[in-house]
Queue: 2 jobs
Job 1
Amino acid sequence: MAVLITILSSTMRVFAGLGLATVISICLGVAIRYFRLIEHLTLPTITLLAPVSPVAWLPVAIFLFGIGNGPAIFMVFVALFFHMILATITQIDGVNRNYINVARTMGASKWQIYRRVILPAILPGLLVVLRFNLFGAWMVVLIAEATGVGFGLGQVIMMARNTFNPSLVFFTIVIIGLLGFGCDFLLRQIQRRILYWLPNRTAGLADV
Amino acid sequence: MSEPAICCRGVGKVWAAGTERAHEALRGIDLIVEDGEFVVVLGPSGCGKSTLLYLIAGLEETSAGEIAAHGVPVTGPAPDRSLIFQETSLFPWLSVWQNVSFGLSLRGVGKAEQREISRQVLFRTGLAETFDKRPHELSGGMRQRVAVARALAMRPKVLLMDEPFAALDVQTRAKMQGFLLDVWRESGASVIFVTHHIDEAMALADRVVVCTARPGRIKDIVTIDRPRPRDPFASEAVALRRKLTELLSAEVDRAFAEQENVAIA
């Protein structure tokens, strides 16, 4: 039971952080390309903060959210957010010009081009980004939990370390590995559903 | 209708104007395309013939001169001037019929009507059985036919084609030319077709516009008034091929010489 609660709480933090980072970064990334003003207001700051290690955010997380789920989720969020924004922008810039030109010759407005062409065109790339960041999220959540959130897999590792219990360390490592693998599998299934138009073999990795 | 389908007067285009990388793609293009005419623009690679199509389509702005479509100045893209690209430009996330009706859906045409128009256009272009397929399930030639069907669904007055068959094998290409001629005759649209392929130009064109190497200018305009389908081995065809080859090879030589100069400098 205790194992289950531990696993669930870590998983929940991973997904909460990943979900928040995904939604906000995609929205902001698209907005940056759509509105020049937003680009000028936010992009320099984002590029400035992107190389900062998530560990550096740890004190900030604790100032802001104290102890509990809050800082752990914030850590996951902050570790992924900046990279995902930059990835979204790169994806948008990489959209085949022909797609956009076809839509333009048919009289599409800017909004229609974004909604009907750019969004579906960047989706495969975004899902690949999401898969890579899922692993990142699992790495960060341990660091966050190790600092005293109360429970979670990171706490277990810290406890094992403090009690010189290597078998517990490796047991936890195996659990994390399995969880990461399971999450990735889940995401691949979702990917296959959403990206129905890609041939299965290359799902997500083919350039569109 | 007295106004020509497309009228270019002194059209020029400089890419990246005002920067170090500025280069002139087109200069002083005067070209009139009548309603229902099939014009092929023939030129060496990189002579700006694609640029001309982009300008006529309204996707890029001219640096000099002006372009009018049916007497109305071109200021931006319009659905009655459809551009068909060399590479596949079908949206892979849409089925064939959704691709064909994409332009209609932008205008807010109802779903049922979109399906109906797609069905008709696909039937007319001999693609009825691809209706529910996805682009990746089709061969290269089929995809280009769907791209043509998609353009036709907009009832264009002018079809602009940028080396649409260049990526296809020779046999498919010959078939596609026949297909295009059928479509052209039936739709009554004017066609401006860009290619570097002399045989293609001879099979298709009412008039062949031969372009010079960069910056692209019109070197000569050759009228072909033989009935289609044309025998590529008839004696007039051989003479014509020789003439076009000579016109073109001089430009290819010039283009190569220029590239070598750039490489040495």
Job 2
Amino acid sequence: MSLFFLQMRNELHKLFARKRTYLGFAAFVAVEILLLLLLNLPKPKAGFRKLIEQNGYGFDQYFSGATLGLLMLMWTTFLLGALYLALVAGDVVAKEVEDGTLRMILCRPISRLRVGFLKYAACVLYTFALTFFIGITALVAGLLYCGWGGLFAIAPLEQLLAMHEAWPGLWRYLGALPLLGFGLVSISSLGFLFSCCEMKPAAATILTLSIFFFDSIFRSIPYFESLRGWFMTSHMTLWLRVFEYHIPWWRIAEDVTWLGALNVTFALVGLAILQQRDFKA
Amino acid sequence: MIRLEHLSKTFKKRVALEDLSLEIRQGEIFGLLGHNGAGKSTTLGMLLGQIYPTSGEAFIRGVSVQQNRQKALDKVGAIFEEPAFHDYLSGWDNLRILTSYSAHLPDEELREAVRFTGLEKRIHDPVWVYSHGMRQRLALAQALLPRPDLILLDEPAEGLDPEGIYEMRKLIVRLNRERGMTVVLSSHLLAEVEQLCDRVAILNQGRLIFEGRWSELTADPSPAHRLEVDDWKKAGGILQKLRVSRPTTETIVLAPGGDMADVVSALVKGGVRIRAIEPLRRNLEDIYLKAISAANGA
């Protein structure tokens, strides 16, 4: 195994061996179950019935495991995913600086750039692992509770309202997960940037979350509608475009480019900060 | 082995180190002595490339740490005052992770370092159950991988109990004698530096105030002696005439320029029987403070 992959494996081992990882992942499952129960309360259920039937489709066919999975996925990633990734990415460098373990690493003949890159790459992989975990558990929970059926996708801000047959719906759901992961990497990248600065891990997390929520709130204010394309969270919803009847590939490519550039910028700025700062007791 | 050339560091407006130039030879145990905030850790930090100097340069084996850190640190191990580990992982996992930043080492090499530091029985326990002494041993084990020829120790005995200090001291001597390692030891514990180091540098407020052999610092003959005589009443009068003071019953301190031989001769002539006489060693703190006050006065 090359040294890089050995180091990468060790970085992931550090991340995944933490108790927080398991508690966090368990928290996601708990939130999903809670959402599942809430969505099945009579009032929300009646709302969905009305919405689906208004569009001329059968409620029993489209209020399915895939539909519930998608709703759980949307809410869980928004409510908890952002918080959790900001926490993990905000810690990734800052916590090691605070604990003194980064100084132990930097006694060794390894460049700061490589250490930083390893940590950033571990954050990105962690983000994808988390996304797939949430996505798959939400789908499984939905299927177990409501069974097989078509997919009803709704996201008002994205002007998304679409119905898909069971199999095409499932493929779209699975296809959307990597794009959701890619969108969430922006939060990890921002968290990584702040984590590289001279600040406490908690400060890095709070700053990341603040920016994410401000971006998210301002984007939804009608006054800023003309500027919506400049908000990070507008592009982070690229995964929802997969559920449109005709997938707008050009628009997805645009979002991927936009977010890719943003992520690279965040990572490079973080690495530059890491490169030039002093590490003392 | 190590050459520091006019190293200076200023943190915001605070001068941490001022124009430090030093040379440390291969195979020696070199002590960096100074009180807290004297600049010892800053010096080690710059040697490891963790702190950028405001000016000056540090060289290890002729390679500039600032220009080519990776090559310069190729065979360097280091431990800090409070070694930090991932507490939720075992000692073994920590070793594996830390050494992977240097090279891909076979397990046997790791086991050897563990054996050397005497951690075999507890190496698979999570680090959070380790005592401070065990953490220091683990820190030493990781610093020994992969086989450095220079080891930097920042307050290695800090927080250890007397037994731990003794063990750590033995390990340092073994590293130097058995493996021929050059050791740079930063400490504010004078006894530790005196017992271990061939040469020392004393830092005060970021400035070098002494560099040389410890014996050069303690070269002046001590004016204090312990004296045992049969008749202190008779001896007291004679000593008074010679302007020798007696802070305690059996301790005498010679006047400046006084010679102990003259004192002995006068006592014998005066009919005093001398049972024992021995020079008292200078108090280490005295020597250190003398060096500092001499530098401050200069």
